[in-house]
Give the backbone structure.
Amino acid sequence: MSEGIQMPEGFLWGGAVAAHQLEGGWNEGGKGVSIADVMTAGAKGVARKVTDGVKDGEIYPNHWGNDFYHKYPEDIKLFAELGLKCFRTSIAWTRIFPNGDEDEPNEAGLKFYDDMFDECHKYGIEPVITLSHFEMPYHLVKEYGGWSNRKMIEFFDRFAEVCFKRYKDKVKYWMTFNEINNQTDWRDPHPLLQNSGLQLTKDDNWEEEMFQAAHYEFVASARAVQIAHKINPDFQVGAMIAMCPIYPLTSNPRDIMKAERAMQYRYYFGDVQALGYYPEWIEKYWARKGFNLDINNSDLATIKAGVVDYVGFSYYMSFATKAHDGEEHFDYDEHNDLVSNPYVEKSDWGWQIDPIGLRYSMNWMTTRWHKPLFIVENGFGAYDKVEADGSIHDPYRIQYFHDHILQMEKAVKEDGVKLIGYTPWGHIDLVSASTGEMKKRYGMIYVDEDDEGHGSLKRSKKDSFYWYQKVIKSNGKDL
Ligand code: BGP
């Protein structure tokens, strides 16, 4: 494997997780029920089921996660041994506001994060915090219809403000909504529900609902940016975009136009959050589709005033697309328009492995949004095997990280991209967001637990642990 390039001093090497995928303790410490808590397990290639409450006999993997809620002191100690400079996680909204619409926050929930952040600082690890990572109070979904309701802006901003005030001196890097653009596959209820809680309200015209919900999220996010800067001008508040560049399958101009529209559609979220305005094409699109959205001038002013400080993004894979015969408008429909790219390999879950796509994406975002970037997710979900002596050899994961980190380093060194840090996804094994499985593992730290939550929960180090440890120690040179 080739040698790496040393990163600039102070580069934030880290790891990333999300509250609902690892904490467990779903009904402890006064926590309310979140939408993640009512999602049953899926399986490889099968979407998880959203239930209308918790029923006996169903498996809800987010109820136990990997038990970080109880084990965080020993886990953070391991993260320190790995050498992490930062740790990305999220605050479970329901620990702070169990129902979402209360006036007063839940002290036990606030204290949990206080203690956990203190534990990080003990080892010089900087917490990087997402406010809403694929979850919201289930009560807000049932009673208000989630983000289809403008009232969510008020509830979210109250939650954000309480967190900004409480953790004013403990957290500097924030993100508002995880993968806010992972709603563009609006035919698939799963990402919609996770981001917006829309699933339980209507089942027709989801595309229009998606644009509406996203708009309310943009306003809430922009207001949160402004609130944050008032509380602490040093706060850095970012967007969080799921970046999968969409390539044209061929150089046929029709495919080029199709891919261009697909990129516009999937990434207008970044335009709004990083540039402060909706792109030109979108109003024409809404008019042609007959969408009638609740967007007013004061919202647009808020969006303009609440531009993010940086763009956090996840990168796992690239996509490819191709125009359909005879189609006139080149509209993007994520459910039907993606095709297989013959030039890249795929993971066991069909995710296209494309390290150069990471460098390409970093260039594309920099040219378009002119903001510092932060790679807050990147990783390889795979089956791992524990050997008789307890060791776990995961060369496939090391290869994936090696190839992606090298491209990341080239983007910084050779292309001038400004990059705050790199936090590989699920550096400790956790529940998969899409399938609810434990066996789709991303970790450098193995957790002894199966898909039903059985196992000793014992943590052990995979080969990738030692590999990443040396990458961090050499600041990216020893790859
Ligand atoms: C991103 C999510 C994460 C995480 C990751 C891996 O979309 O932000 O929460 O889960 O993907 O996905 P999965 O767990 O489905 O393999």
Residues 12-473 form a domain with the TIM Barrel fold (CATH 3.20.20.80). The radius of gyration is 21 Å. The mean pLDDT is 95.
